[in-house]
Design goal:
The chain is 54% helix and 18% strand. It is an alpha+beta fold. The protein folds into three domains: 160 residues, PAS domain (Beta-Lactamase, 2-Layer Sandwich); 86 residues, Signal transduction histidine kinase, dimerisation/phosphotransfer (DHp) domain (Helix Hairpins); 147 residues, Histidine kinase-like ATPase, C-terminal domain (Heat Shock Protein 90), CATH 3.30.565.10. It has a five-stranded antiparallel sheet. A five-stranded mixed sheet has the order 7-9-10-12-11. It is rod-shaped and about 160 Å long. Bound molecules: adenosine-5'-diphosphate and magnesium ion (MG). Adenosine-5'-diphosphate (ADP) binds next to helix 10 and helix 12. Adenosine-5'-diphosphate binds next to helix 10 and helix 12.
Length: 469
């Protein structure tokens, strides 16, 4: 399973860290227990040994006999596991609790640190080999005092094993719990990683594959608000924009097909009519004129499309230079002289100063203003007003084109910049392509400037900005 590697890595890392942590805790616990246990063992031994040794002077003074001494010595803690030797002041062993040690009686016992003992301190030695059993022993030596005088010593032999045994059982418990904790934590993190990381990632991956195969309507289910959830949301947003792009592409294609089909159909119809002789000779010129207009329209459409596509792929080259925007406006207005006269329009041009300089590309600016003025004339009623204005505002130049006419529907306002959008839904308007405003906006955007539209009084006003040089 190659895609489980992330989870495996995570779980392995986690397990490692957890194991190290638990082992550290276990080691500290074990050491602590060992210290505590040995310390307690020693104090117990010391206390009971002190108590028992107090009966030794009585024995030496013959106030108690062997049996009673034996009984008192058996009170020493842990003596059931070990053996006791009694040593007199001159270092000779004179009493043993275990017969096995009988051979040692009346031999000298060599103390490792007699001075300390005489001073009244007990001594503890670990790892001494028992002379009789040859086992490893813990040796505990308690001085015997009577009226402040050193009388000898009480030596307790305990096999090291018997001291360590209970400690081992504690170790065993500590380490079993540690091992179990490691196993459970690892299983738990595996489960959590599986649920929180692995599953959502696999789902994201699956959906991504589907989308790349064209199923752009696929979405992932967002179940958390963590980073994975955020990723899923971003993913869905991306999928949405892909879907939108896909839809735009489809719409665009269907729009183009539609725009191309109607002129081609009418061209074909008229030409067929002329060829078949259905159209009388004397009307041929009239119909050829219509065909010519249709071809003009097709040419315009194709040119606009090429312009748009060039702009969108960034191939449209333009140079920003310093231009006199007043002069460009005058040039554009002059081009519409006949149209203006035909409709009996009043054109009011208000230009700031003699010259107003701004940065732009001459041909593109002419295209923009021509498009706006063309729209204004188209949507202006006969004998209406058109106002074109240039004016500086801070570091910007505002150019606006106003025309009388019905205001644009609020609902339509945001669509007029879309390709192929035409307010006139019947599409009877043969001069409309719905590509003018998208081209205008594209050019202005590439200049790094802004364009907007407002309904103003009895008409519509388009305004765009340019930067002063
Ligand atoms: N001056 C205007 N007044 C009212 N509506 C306008 C004006 N300019 C543009 N429009 C609306 O925006 C639409 C798109 O304009 P445009 O992209 O230039 O395409 P076209 O001029 O080919 O119709 C027009 O069909 C019209 O509905
Ligand atoms: Mg137009």
């Amino acid at each position: 399973m190659k895609h489980s590697s992330l989870v495996t890595k995570l779980v392995a890392t986690f397990a490692m860290v957890v194991t190290i942590g638990y082992i550290l805790i276990a080691v500290v616990l074990s050491l602590w227990f060992q210290n505590y246990f040995l310390e307690r063992n020693r104090t117990d031994l010391e206390e009971t040994a002190k108590l028992a040794s107090s009966s030794v002077p009585l024995y030496l003074n013959k106030e108690i006999d062997d049996t009673e001494l034996m009984r008192n010595l058996s009170l020493v803690k842990g003596v059931d596991r070990g053996d006791i030797l009694l040593v007199d002041a001159s270092g000779y062993i004179f009493f043993v609790t275990n017969e096995a040690y009988n051979s040692l009686v009346f031999t000298r016992f060599t103390f490792p640190d007699r001075e300390r003992l005489v001073e009244g301190n007990s001594i503890e030695i670990n790892g001494e080999v028992n002379p009789i059993t040859k086992e490893e022993m813990s040796l505990f030596i308690q001085p015997i005092e009577h009226n402040g005088v050193y009388q000898g010593a009480l030596v307790v032999y305990t096999p090291l094993g018997s001291i360590r045994e209970p400690l081992y059982s504690i170790y065993l418990r500590i380490w079993t719990i540690t091992a179990m904790a490691v196993i459970f934590s690892t299983l738990f993190i595996y489960y959590v990683a599986q649920r929180m990381l692995f599953k959502p990632l696999v789902e994201l991956n699956t959906i991504a594959r589907k989308i790349s195969k064209g199923e752009v309507t696929q979405r992932v289910l967002v179940t958390s608000s963590d980073e994975i959830g955020q990723l899923s949301e971003s993913f869905n947003t991306m999928a949405e924009s892909l879907e939108q792009t896909d839809k735009n592409r489809r719409d665009f294609l269907s729009n183009i097909s539609h725009e191309l089909r109607s002129p081609i159909t009418s061209i074909r119809g008229f030409i067929a009519g002329i060829l078949d002789g259905i159209i009388p000779m004397d009307k041929e010129n009239y119909y050829l004129k219509i065909v010519y207009d249709e071809i003009q329209r097709l040419t315009r459409l194709v040119n606009d499309l090429l312009d748009l596509s060039a702009m969108e792929s960034g191939k449209f080259s333009f140079k920003l230079t310093e231009l006199d925007i007043n002069e460009i406006v005058k040039v554009c207005i002059a081009r519409f002289e006949t149209k203006v006269e035909d409709k009996g329009l009043k054109v009011n041009v208000t230009l700031e100063g003699d010259h107003l300089y701004a940065a732009g590309d001459r041909d593109r600016l002419i295209q923009v203003i021509t498009n706006l003025v063309d729209n204004a004339i188209k949507h202006c009623p006969d004998n209406g007003d058109i106002r074109v204005q240039t004016r500086s505002k801070g570091k910007k130049v505002h150019v606006s084109v106003y025309n009388d006419g019905t205001p644009i529907d609020d609902h339509d306002l945001k669509y007029i910049w879309d390709r192929f959008y035409k307010g006139d839904k019947s599409r009877t308007n043969k001069v409309s392509t719905g590509l003018g405003l998208p081209i205008v906006r594209n050019i202005i955007t590439q200049f790094g400037e802004d364009i907007w539209v407002e309904n103003k009084g009895q008409g519509v006003i388009f305004t765009f900005t340019l930067s002063m040089t």
